[in-house]
Request: fold
Amino acid sequence: MTQSIHPLLLCGGSGTRLWPLSRKSYPKQFTEITGEESLFQASARRLSGDGFAAPMVVTGSDFRFVVMEQLAAIELAAQATLIEPEGKNTAPAILAGALMLEAQSPGALMLVAPSDHVIPDAERFRAAVQAAAPAAEAGDLVTFGIAPTRAETGYGWLEMSAAPAADFAPVPQRLQAFVEKPDSATAETLLAGGTHLWNAGIFLFSTAALIKAFETHAPLMLAGVRDAVEAAERDLGFTRLAPTPWAGLEDISIDYAVMEKADNLSVVPYGGAWSDLGGWDAVWREAGPDADGVVTAGPATALECSDTLLRAEDGQQELVGIGLTDIVAVAMPDAVLVAHKDRAQDVKKAVAALKKKGAAQAETLPRDYRPWGWYESLVVGGRFQVKRIHVHPGAALSLQSHHHRSEHWIVVEGTAKVTVDDEVKLVTENQSVYIPLGAVHRMENPGKVPMVLIEVQTGTYLGEDDIIRYEDVYARGQGAKG
Reply:
């Protein structure tokens, strides 16, 4: 490679097809599904090292601190984190990243990758990216195609000019056409033909080439995104794209916006393992079923089962399956999914049904993540609530007060620095402090290990919007949670 490649990691989407583990409040890219790292962390690590610049990230406001925290946990840092005012599909997000990068490094190579894919052989994938770099430097818009292993109807396909090498060597060639998600018969024909690949939604191009493609095929979008980038505001190290021009943009994928209209397209075949984890059936495949086709995760036990996934997420529960065939069962503390494996793609219908009935489980997890850590409700009553609160080392909640509730804090791990009106004191393990209704208060973790406390709230209203905020290191407004 003659220059460093700049990864752009896309962190949008709600991941509803992996409900109840993945939800709008904490989607699948940030969860540990196939290993000890989240999919986002694995993606960032895969696209790092020799030949790669620090990643750029595009995400929503709710996840900006999660991105920062998860990157720090694997000792990486983003060169820029762009905050979308609202999700508008991939075209505006990718273009915003390209405009930002072009301003600081004209003609840079940008590798666009979703942050929720599984690619076990990172070295082989990086080699494919390096093989694609000369074509991208020459002005091509390069896409990566996955060697198909089945007649998949859930993916778009890519038509090559010729069949790839027997070993799927990553040699760029002209891309003939994009193929929409096929029906079963068409998918079988594509698989048998040998000149079609799965469309992974991963791209490599120079910023100049992509911007030129938008000038030609989507000039209105280019103008709107440019306005959103030029009017962007810096916020605690993040870049907030301007909401007014962003609101007027079309909600459209990069494929539809420019790729399918361009004539300078190349494709690089990739023969390694890959999955977008687009459903629990894909998780079952990637987890490596045993001889009976059974996958268990967490405190789960399968008795006389076959071709079945059993996954339990709470150490206090036991999930047991007896005599099951082709079943997916996923147990969370607040929700359980049981479905036939062939109906895995219909999980999003369940989420829609739950949203319609107003169930909180449709979009939110019991554990609520915040810039300073997280909390979870342990017990909720008519006039009381008990929470467990986890505060990261060096983190602090806002200075705040409440109209309708008082609080009692009991530290169970670490040390808390507690402010109550004019008094500031340290509260250590097994000590407690009372926060009267209306008192101005704050908790901080001054130590180098996590601080955990149990909070007992009592009052007439216990909603998270009962907050008068006086000072906040995370620059959140009134009524923001935590």
